[in-house]
Design brief:
Largest sheet: none
Strand content: under 5%
Structural class: mainly alpha
Number of strands: 0
Order of helices and strands: HHHHH
Number of helices: 5
């Protein structure tokens, strides 16, 4: 429950300050969250964190796997991005 305590504290801080451009402030001050309390905010925030972590992890591992299975595409990517001058791919 440390997470709930921490983000509950952030909710209160952001709610008592003028809106800022960070995600938490935008969520706290949005019309959608104005009708809901910190519990709903926490649920949405956890979804953002888990979803972002899962998406990033799967995208990176899937990309590495695909490039490993398709060395011609890896070489093309390295050549077009300029990474062929800085990255070595040895088999």
């Amino acid at each position: 429950m440390e997470c709930a305590t921490y983000f509950g504290k952030l909710w209160k801080e952001r709610a008592n300050q003028p809106p800022k451009s960070d995600l938490l402030s935008m969520m706290v001050h949005s019309e959608a969250h104005a009708r809901h309390g910190p519990e709903n905010f926490l649920g949405n925030l956890i979804c953002w964190i888990v979803g972002g972590n899962d998406t990033t992890r799967n995208t990176l591992s899937g990309s590495v796997y695909a490039l490993n299975r398709n060395p011609d595409q890896y070489r093309k990517l390295a050549r077009e991005s300029g990474a062929d001058r800085t990255v070595s791919c040895r088999r």
